[in-house]
Amino acid sequence: MPANSISVSDILRASVCPMQLYLAKSSPANFTEPLRYSVAKQLSYHLGEEFNREENREKIREELRLTIPECGQDAFSVLDEMIDACSKVTWRQALTYDMQVDSGKYNIHGRVDRVFDDSFSIIKGGKAPTHGVYASDRLQAVCYSICLEEMYGKEFYGRIEYLGSGTIRSVVLSPSDKRLFLTALKEVEKVRRGEVPRPVRGDKCKRCRFSENCTPLERPQTLLERLKKK
């Protein structure tokens, strides 16, 4: 993997708001893995096994104590919730986990949660939307499909596994999904060249940790506004 390879996480961030990516690159790294994701990841290694609820619950608790030494009852409550939801579903056992994938053609790389002979799964700690999958999850699936197909010379289809609700959603990719990938990839490349992107304003700004440092750029004048000045 080339040193300048673009991570899938950067592509996802740029798809939400290129300014978020720009500010993240110039800010000190301060990443804490979300609790629900940590719990979902640990549970995902047991999906597809013969599942004795009590034995597996205690085993996964011990694994969480090792991976997250400061974890407590909050983590165990989330685990109980996910086990209850996931025990109602039949899961495939993966061939491999946390697989590093990359594409030389598009200069991207990422890590896939669960990989099978014909497909892959992306683990999420939240609950599934009412229909389909979330936009960022779909884009993540596009990235991994591109990498796996280039690496193995065959098609791979993706699934999003929402362990918070015990829901498996297949992702059928369309040409528009791949166009969104190319658009986000271009935004990452612009940021890497040092270009200052225009922020995308919306509800997600309230949840962005860079909101206080994000200064709105002046909106370009419309043709009508320019004509009025003459």
Keywords:
alpha/beta; single chain; 6-stranded mixed sheet; 230 residues; Lambda Exonuclease, Chain A
Structural features, described:
The protein has 230 residues and is of the alpha/beta class. The protein has a single domain (6-192), classed as Lambda Exonuclease, Chain A, CATH 3.90.320. Helices cover 43% and strands 15% of the residues. The chain contains 8 helices and 6 strands; from the N terminus they run βαααααβββαββαα. It has helices at 8-16, 18-25, 35-44, 53-67, 73-86, 135-152, 175-192, 223-229, and strands spanning 6-7, 96-103, 108-115, 119-124, 157-162, 167-171. Strands 1, 2, 3, 4, 5 and 6 form a 6-stranded mixed beta sheet that branches. The longest helix has 18 residues, at 135-152. The protein starts with 5 loop residues before the first strand and ends with a helix. 31% of the residues are buried. The model is unreliable at 217-223 (pLDDT under 50).
In total, how many beta strands? 6
Supply the helix-strand structural class.
alpha/beta
Q: Tally the structural domains.
A: 1
Main sheet specs: 6 strands, mixed
**What is the CATH C-level name?**
Alpha Beta
Radius of gyration: 20 Å
Label the overall shape. globular
Q: Give the DSSP E fraction (strand runs of 2 or more residues).
A: 15-25%
Number of helices: 8
CATH architectural label: Alpha-Beta Complex
